[in-house]
């Protein structure tokens, strides 16, 4: 990556020597600053005296067709993807500037290396010498076009949530809202914020320091699309990746065929088929058992023991920062008072939800959306279930006789409905009477960000502040709760520019406290996730975000 070692890496080495950071945190942070992962692993061994290396890659046979059961939603707009599985379909065709692997280490990809300035405000990316499938060279201007597009508010990409604090300014549109206040939009903070230096060199100039730029470039809607196709993806679309999409039917199937001339090692498969079996975990299990498919993208909690008992089936598990939250829109009358929102949290028994809904696979949520597995997590005092305190807060907020609510949700995965039913029963003890509006998944995802009260799943992110930026920063596309807190936004921007994980953890402690006292969510659990594949599937590793890297897979 970087040819010159960033000055902050010396401090990381001292922190590792003094055991202030873990070996994995050293590798992750040093790699973000431009040190090759190989060199970072070498330094860990040299400093600690203990060998430390990623697991060796498995030998993968060539040829054959792999069939995986996975949902196949609309894939037409990669820059606005909202699910992981639609991005998995596209991942074989369109690639990313960086890649965060199964070990949470971010490495070069279409950008073969990068350099960060000492103040973390200038990031220079050097493009790999690769070609689009059409034969045209992939250039820095292609990368710049994709960046500008995802940061254009008209596109509606969630990338804005990650990059708003350091790439965008809020400006008035010239229009006023219903309340008479000016309507706002965003634009690049500087006309030179995205700078093409030459055909292979892209520079990103930030208004605020940011440590996680390489990780943000692997956010799944940040795919590099051919500018000539204007952001639209489908059968036959151009790409730099190892596969071509040759067939696609919404809610039915996606078929990718290996192409010649890809720049990397592989692909090993001839074809990869994603087969959509709907919201039917039992049918998936039967299909894997009978050999109709070779693997399942992810499994339901109720089927885990069934897969473990199957002959020749390998179950892959991971503790992750995946979760789901009962989120309240704070501009709705019933949720505008922070005391009501906190009462909802106090009325929730997380231990019971984890046991009943998720069979104790995972960890307790703390209502702030920062996971204990995040390197910048700060352990706060345990948030206790307290029905009387919840009742008291509701009374103070003007609801002495309780509150009537409705929560929108979907039926899959099944644990979500079980979790909601468990919480609804708990909330009733505090005088919160809540009905469940169960929608088909397709209908729910049309309105997930519009309903006043809903239960929304969130995927794993490698850093604690990343999901806070996506979901709770003022005015970003995925801020489904409409939450807006000036102090929260300020601290979030400060955390994003803080490399020192100990200092950043201190900032996160204040963000976590704001979420517990003022925030818009009830977060009962952190999830353990799993996938199941026949032992003939080779090269598979379970990514904590459930990304599939098809060029690594084979069958034999």
Shape: globular
Instruction: Kindly report how far apart the N and C termini lie.
Output: 34 Å
The CATH H-level superfamily of the domain at 319-528 is Dipeptide-binding Protein, Domain 3
Mean pLDDT: 94
Characterize the biggest β-sheet.
10 strands, mixed
Content of β-strand: 15-25%
Q: Find the count of extended strands (DSSP E, 2+ residues).
A: 22
* Class from secondary-structure proportions: alpha+beta
Q: What gyration radius follows from the Cα positions, in whole Å?
A: 23 Å
User: What is the oligomeric state here?
Assistant: single chain
Poorly predicted segments: none
SSE topology:
Elements: H1 8-17, H2 23-32, H3 37-48, E1 65-69, H4 84-91, E2 98-100, E3 106-108, E4 111-116, E5 122-127, H5 140-150, H6 159-167, E6 168-176, E7 182-188, E8 194-198, E9 201-205, H7 213-216, E10 243-249, E11 253-258, E12 271-275, H8 281-290, E13 295-296, H9 304-308, E14 313-328, H10 338-346, H11 350-358, E15 362-364, H12 387-396, E16 403-409, H13 414-428, E17 432-438, H14 441-447, E18 453-458, H15 464-472, H16 486-496, H17 501-518, E19 521-522, E20 525-534, E21 537-538, E22 554-555
Parallel strand pairs: 1-12, 1-13, 16-17
Antiparallel strand pairs: 2-3, 4-5, 5-9, 6-7, 8-9, 10-11, 11-12, 13-20, 14-18, 14-19, 14-20, 15-20, 21-22
Helix pairs in contact: 1-2, 2-3, 6-15, 10-12, 11-13, 15-16, 16-17
